[in-house]
Amino acid sequence: MRILHFLVQLPIEFTMKDTKSEIQKLNIPPIIISIFCVLIILLFSDIISNSIISAINNCLNIIVPSLFPMFIISYYLLNSGFSDKTRKRLHKYLLRLFGLSGNCSEAVIIGLTGGYNTAIKSAVKLSEDGKISKTEAKRLALFFTCPGLSFCINVTGIAVYSNIKVGVQLFISNILTCVIFGFLYNLRNKNNNQYIEANTQKQSSPFVMSVASASSSIISVCSWIILFSAAISGLSAVFGNIKILNTFFSLFGEISGAVIFASENFSFAITAFCLNFGGFCIFLQQLPDITALEIKPRNYLIIRLFQAAVCAGIQQLISFLFPIFVSVYSEPIRIKLFSSSAVGSFTLLLLSIVLIVSVRDNLTDKKPTQYKRFLQ
Q: Quick check: helix, strand or coil at residue 82?
């Protein structure tokens, strides 16, 4: 409990002056970055081009169909909002559990189900509108940033693992992590604010605004995915002989690539870690909102990494209690005919054909390297 309190107090007790000075200390001359990027692009143009094409296909075939509808629903819920009566009913539960007022009801729901950036953007919007305090906004950003329903189930479970049960487990582990951290922190730092009725006006066309906001968000997400895919491919080409760096780039860079890499090389627990952390691609998308909420970026990263580690432990426990077996690819099976009789040989051949057909039907279009046995 003391460790959690210490870690969470880091990003909550600070000033914007500290944040700006921290960023200035890490400032690198833009000319150096530009020259380095140009050299990488010139030397490894083929690799980077193929990576960009692959990222675009990933966005068009997986990311957009999976996330865009959920973005629309999330923004529609935020723009339309619950009735004041519903918020009052939810207020006492949210206050006891997480120290949040009833005005955070929509933000909590869409933060847990909508995707990485929805909780932070909701916190910023509610804080700027005067509906919640800065403390509540920080709690929303810190404890309710979740990969969401679509990314866990549609992208990771169905598209990557070809198993919806895997996605459901990962979604549950991420939800539990958010809820546990929010609850434990509130035990130590009680917030007993009374419910204040917000003077809100219903949007005239919430659905139209939701589509516009969702379109802007999905374009931003895809742009960052393409950018990070190109950057990671270039860095991997430069440091190709250093395995630990390639692993670091793959796991901590861009989240969709991290999930694929983790699924090919590690257990479900590492995939849960990557999902909860989100990678530096998500962090850079959140950076303007983090600073707007007066959260120190470095300490926000510490919190996210600590939460990701706990999420990995929860997923490991879930996998132990409810094991899931994913289709694997093995080395080609060699059949040797030991029988000297024609009937025995024919029977073995027939069984071999049945086995080949069965294996072929069970395999999907994924690359063979993805069919490794995942540690439970």
A: coil
Residue 147 — very low, low, confident or very high, per pLDDT cuts 50/70/90? very high
Question: What pLDDT, on a 0 to 100 scale, did the predictor assign at position 207?
Answer: 81
CA dihedral 376, 229, 159, 367 (to 10 degrees): -80
**369: DSSP letter:** G
More confident residue, 153 or 13: 153
What is 162-222 written as a DSSP string? S-HHHHHHHHHHHHHHHHHHHHHHHHHS---PPP--------S-HHHHHHHHHHHHHHHHH
Between the CA atoms of 68, 73, 76 and 78, what dihedral angle is there, to the nearest 10 degrees?
-100
The percentage of residues in the chain with a pLDDT greater than 90, rounded to a whole number, is: 36
> CB-based burial of residue 306 (10 Å sphere; 0-12 exposed, 13-18 middle, 19+ buried)?
middle
Query: Using CA atoms, how far apart are residues 255 and 124, in angstroms rounded to an integer?
Result: 23
What is the reported pLDDT for 208? 83
Query: Over 50: is that where the pLDDT of 17 sits?
Result: no
DSSP reduced 3-state for 232: helix
**Is the pTM for the entire model greater than 0.90?**
no
Measuring CA to CA, which residue among 274, 259, 252 is closest to residue 161?
A: 259
> Is the Cβ–Cβ distance between 265 and 371 less than 8 Å?
no
Q: d(Cα 75, Cα 126) in Å, to the nearest integer?
A: 13
pLDDT over 50 at 221, yes or no:
yes
